[in-house]
Structure formats: structure tokens, C-alpha cells
Amino acid sequence: MTDDHDTTHGHTTTHGHDTDHGHNAAHGRRAADDRTMADRPGATDDRNTLDAWTDTVCRELGIAGPVDRAAILDLTKDVARGVARPAAPLTAYLVGLAVGAGGDPADVAERVGRLAGSWPTSRTAPEH
User: Fold this and answer.
1) If you average pLDDT over each of 30-34, 37-41, 44-48, 98-102, which comes out highest?
2) Which residues pair with 6 in a beta bridge?
3) Contacts of 95 (CB under 8 A, 6+ apart)
4) Is the pTM of this model over 0.85?
């Protein structure tokens, strides 16, 4: 499984959809995060490994549809930076549960991204 993503106006797009969702701008990190994977040292090896890993896991778990890897990585990056690093893999798991239970992947990612972007810096849970 591969995803089609390219850089357009400083945003990574996947299947024609902007995956930035404004998270980087909200955190003031746009310049550093706009580099494409190809701009980084060892990027080709990393991309090949990530492609192979994604394909292997999808086959093992019987996942047939396309995987928006860029959106998942962007979301977990925002959670790691805005909430806490250990929250990133936990969030990926929770997002997977929500999507597996019938949630729309784009909606789930947007909602969780919004939560991560508004998470208080004091690391206490927001009042509801």
C-alpha cells in the first residue's frame, strides 16, 4: 500500500487532501515541518522501510483499503508535541479503535487533532 503525497504550497497532501489541518500553524512550527520526507538524510531508506512495514502489517491484519499514513504521522506528531510523547502511540491506537467502530477516518483525525492543538500546556485535562 502506498499513499500519493506531494508537497503543494508547503502542505503535504495525500490523495489530493491537505493533511496539515492548520495544526502546525497553530503551534508555530510550519517552517520546520514543511520539509518533505525526501529532504531529510536517509529519507529514501526510511520511506522504503515504512512502505514495507505498512504493507506487511496491512496484509497481516487483513486491511485492504488505502492507509493515509501521512495523516496518521501528522496527527501523532501533533499529539507527541502538544500533549506528551507517550500519548502519540496511544492516540493512534484509540483512533484505530474509533475508525474500526465505524468512525469516519478524516472526522476522527480532525477531532483528535483539534483536541491536541487545544491541550493546555500545564498538562492537566481541560474542563468539560
Assistant:
1) 98-102
2) 13
3) 72, 75, 108, 109, 112
4) no
Q: Is 14 in a helix, a strand, or coil?
A: strand
Write the CB contacts of 74 (distance below 8 Å, at least 6 apart in sequence): 12, 19, 20, 21, 23, 113
What separation in angstroms does the CA of 42 have from each of 14, 39, 112? 22, 9, 30
Q: In the numeric block, which cell numbers belong to residue 3?
A: 499513499
Query: Residue 118 in contact with residue 21, Cβ under 8 Å?
Result: no
Structural contact between residues 63 and 54, judged by C-beta atoms closer than 8 angstroms: no
Rounded Cα distance between 80 and 87, Å, is 6
- pLDDT at 90 exceeding the cut of 80: yes
Strand 17-18 to 5-8 pairing: unpaired
Residue 92 contacts residue 76 (beta carbons within 8 Å):
yes
Position 45, amino acid = D
9-35 in b/e burial notation, b at 16+ Cβ within 10 A?
eebbbbeeeebbbebbebeeeeeebee
